[in-house]
Amino acid sequence: MAKQQRDISVSEFFAKNRHLLGFDNKRKALLMSVKEAVDNALDACEEAGHLPEIEVRLTQLAEDRFRVKVRDNGPGIVKQQIPNIFGKLLYGSKFHRLKMSRGQQGIGISAAGLYGLLTTGKSIKVTSRTSPRKEAHYYEIQIDTRKNAPMPVKDQSMEVDWPSGTQVEIELVGSYNKGRQSVDEYIDQTAIANPHVRLVYFPPAGEPIEYPRGTDVMPVQTEAIKPHPYGVELGALIKMLQETKSHWLSGFLHAEFCRVSNRVADEICARARLNARAHPKRIARQEAEKLYSAIQQTRLRSPPTNCLSPIGAEQILTGLLKGVGAEFFTAATRPPAVYRGNPFQIEVGLAYGGDLGPDPRTDNGEVQYAKKARGKKGDNGNGSRSPSLARVIRFANRVPLLYQQSACCIFKSIVDIDWRRYRLSQSSGALPQGPVVIMVHMASVWVPFTSESKEAIADYDEIRQEVRLAVQECGRKLAAYLNRRRRQKYEGQRRNIFERYISEVVEACATIKRVNREQLNRDLMVLAKGMTARADEELDEHGRPIAKRGPGRSGSEFGTNTVVVDRDAQPAGALFQKTG
Amino acid sequence: MAKQQRDISVSEFFAKNRHLLGFDNKRKALLMSVKEAVDNALDACEEAGHLPEIEVRLTQLAEDRFRVKVRDNGPGIVKQQIPNIFGKLLYGSKFHRLKMSRGQQGIGISAAGLYGLLTTGKSIKVTSRTSPRKEAHYYEIQIDTRKNAPMPVKDQSMEVDWPSGTQVEIELVGSYNKGRQSVDEYIDQTAIANPHVRLVYFPPAGEPIEYPRGTDVMPVQTEAIKPHPYGVELGALIKMLQETKSHWLSGFLHAEFCRVSNRVADEICARARLNARAHPKRIARQEAEKLYSAIQQTRLRSPPTNCLSPIGAEQILTGLLKGVGAEFFTAATRPPAVYRGNPFQIEVGLAYGGDLGPDPRTDNGEVQYAKKARGKKGDNGNGSRSPSLARVIRFANRVPLLYQQSACCIFKSIVDIDWRRYRLSQSSGALPQGPVVIMVHMASVWVPFTSESKEAIADYDEIRQEVRLAVQECGRKLAAYLNRRRRQKYEGQRRNIFERYISEVVEACATIKRVNREQLNRDLMVLAKGMTARADEELDEHGRPIAKRGPGRSGSEFGTNTVVVDRDAQPAGALFQKTG
């Protein structure tokens, strides 16, 4: 038995377990390849400060064979690094730092190349140019899975007509469909979460689709941070003590962690009854344990948040307004929070469109979406007509998450909320019902995914709570809007009935002596109009009117970051009334 | 940017992503460590042909700190291999072969050691003895995560009082609870699926629990098989062509794959229009593609199934009878099937106990289980009383799967079945309701898990279908049993009512002349008894009586592998009537 024991290379491991990386089936494989290439392209552009321009081109070569080609205008990659980046799993610059980026593992694009190689035998093709003054370089790369090492099979200079950037080409067995969980949906949602990106998408058939830039402002550049002491485990602390370049303990604490000033470092040492001038390498295990519990007992500031770059409520609203044909839009941004020492921030956008009941506007985008969601979930052949469920759009570090919804912390938070408080019906343990789209974004230096394929966020209490609070904030605004609408409708009905009978009332009164018929008619009409005006007031959860907070602009009574689109008045391309 | 690019060791990767290995929280971490150690112990014993005796000992050292100690009577591990096996991720003998075993990745036990090291700073301690003639060897091992290499910190000979085997000791941060998803449940279910194992379990508090052997017969020794041609992808085929030791193409096909005779190999070559005598290394990519499609077009036998060792219907029934206090038991075993070239086999056991309505017997084990399941799932604070759901027990290669039930192919198959056909009520998209326990085992040379933590089986159509067919077979037997029970009850009621009125009928008839009162009474009683006898007949799905298949032994009318326990007659330790 001893003879059979041997190393398993990480490439072999993931080749055999490629469903762990999201390459379970042909359809998903196509999506994953596009996703990994686009995520890398966007990261590269943003880190170099280039406003991203991305071109995605799918070419169908045979029934189940596609070529994926993705090009960016980023800084390009130096020649020596190309083989490792595209031909080796677990290699990269993003794993060892704490900074918000789309990629974090150093697996994605190499795995896509490996999948292409496994299914078609074709190499991944990479062309990269670092400057307009230099020639581009072209590589064809395969992975030696037994060694997890790149095998360049072609390596040459090349003329290209673009000044800088990287182009990746993968041939693979895949299948292309439109609709849910498709490449199209991924591109769509990427444009929503990244309004600073210009995207041109060539689907396998049909016209190319251009997503123009919504803003010329780049997202705020994020900083890499040092780990926060609260997130470090005893074993990791011992290892850091062994490996530090600091010569004494307090210096070590100050240098290797964030939010540990010299004063705080001395405080920790004192609490642990350790000499602040002790050499870190000489700290024994028992002493390290004391140090560890002293850290836990010391009050420390939360980690800095300049490592995070949220999308922002304004951009979320812009994205939703472009993508979803609803009538009510609102957004909420939570302050940064921390899980296991990692800072993160939650943002939520909510769109509501159309009546809950039968509505002629059911051909609106968002209602169709909700219907599709129902079709996927509740259709188990028993033919019962279940109501349409809300649609959830999830993002992590600006990347859309399209699979494993029900395993995701975001989904669980939304399902756990009691939506009846916000005037939506809801079955127990399910999404709320109605024409609702809920978009949630988690920005973090380290998003805890449930698998290497990065499809769902792991269920940390801190994350769940932040999602809940942000969604509830949007829910409250939605409830206020729904209350007003309900009241308006009710008052409108009352006025109609009243108006219908005005002339008869006038006639009846006229039979009484000394009544001025015209004056009475005018007075009653004023009364009827007054009813409608009152109906515009905001109502609280119990239907009682609330005093207005801001000046009279419509929408403002629902708080900041809310947009109401009057689709009845201006059916298409409506003017938005935006407040906040 | 280029300077920051560097290798990520697989240990670093999994240390940062340890939730991928199942070490998400303290409770699960304790379970995972026990599980990995026990799985390895059982594999080692069985491969060496030792009837396994396993001792599991949990010691609580502090509020959230435990020592896990697992010892087996296996063949032991040679000294040189110990550091690699316990101190290196992705190392082992099970990954590169196609053979049914509990471990398959070469990650588990090292990951448990790494988790212990990370959380407590303590090494994993391994004592192993390969023969009673040799001394045992003792190691303390840490992992150098940066290199993914073992660092033995202690290494010495040792006297032990057991002749051969391996003992592993890990100190870790964890938490111990009883109930669902606990170490206790894992040990319980391991005993059910491995009746040939003697297990002694020392929980942190209370008396040790002994699981005696249910059988002295070892499971059939399984063989490693070669890959089946249908499961090989183009890229993998090309790589095999490059690496083979065969000198010509047909020889390569015959030597590297199963179910390819020389005749079939020639047939494939002819179909691909390739020379059977061509040198495999000289086959170009385009030719390999032809070869690949020729393989797909050739009719091949299914892979051999001596690589599988199912538990067997008899043992499943024995296990269920021991573990679950139900009244009706049945089991079904499917013939072996294939997914992506890998043979697998599905076995199902089903236990049913107590009435669906209010029942004095609700303190039976299985009803409590079902109640717990409901508590976990449907309790979202709305206070509605949902009915108790069936309980699903999942196994893969004899290992209980306790987490991620709803992500598992087995669960999805069961939920998709229309249980109303089998006389159980069911909400759409949910488990059936009632005091039912469904046990499903998948045996395969390669179980496709959805994550490295091996908690759920990936959703392959072939697997889903086999589970469905096996569960439905059990469902049909259950329906027959429930029908008979319902009929018996109904007829019993009828007879009771009838009997109650016999004397009055007799009185009434007696007023008519020429009626023999005693004779009439006797005749009517005979009639009443006849009704009961008829009620024992088996009824089909529509409630019509079916002719009995076998001789009169109770239970036989439900087919083979079925046990009915008459709990009314013999409340405890009932005699089983077994057929088949």
Give a nutshell description of this structure.
The structure is a homodimer of 580-residue chains. With 580 residues, chain A is α+β, with helices and mostly antiparallel strands.
Explain how this protein is built.
- 2 copies of one chain form a homodimer.
- Chain A has 580 residues and is α+β, with helices and mostly antiparallel strands.
- Chain A has helices at 10-16, 26-48, 82-87, 108-120, 183-193, 234-243, 249-256, 262-271, 285-297, 313-323, 365-377, 409-416, 461-511, 517-535; strands spanning 6-7, 53-62, 65-71, 91-92, 124-129, 136-144, 149-158, 165-173, 198-202, 209-211, 328-333, 337-339, 342-352, 391-396, 399-401, 436-444, 538-539, 545-546, 562-564, 577-578.
- An 8-stranded mixed β-sheet of chain A has the order 7-6-5-8-3-2-9-10.
- The longest helix of chain A has 51 residues, at 461-511.
- The radius of gyration of chain A is 29 Å and the shape is globular.
- The relative contact order of chain A is 0.09.
- At the A-B interface, strand 1, helix 1, strand 4, helix 4 and helix 6 of A face strand 1, helix 1, strand 4, helix 4 and helix 6 of B.
Task: Compute the number of helices of chain A.
Answer: 14
Given as residue ranges, the uncertain stretches of chain A (5+ residues, pLDDT < 50) are: 355-385, 545-555, 569-580
Shape of chain A: globular
Q: Classify the helix fraction of chain A into a percent range.
A: 25-40%
Q: What's the count of strands of chain A?
A: 20
Quaternary organisation: homodimer
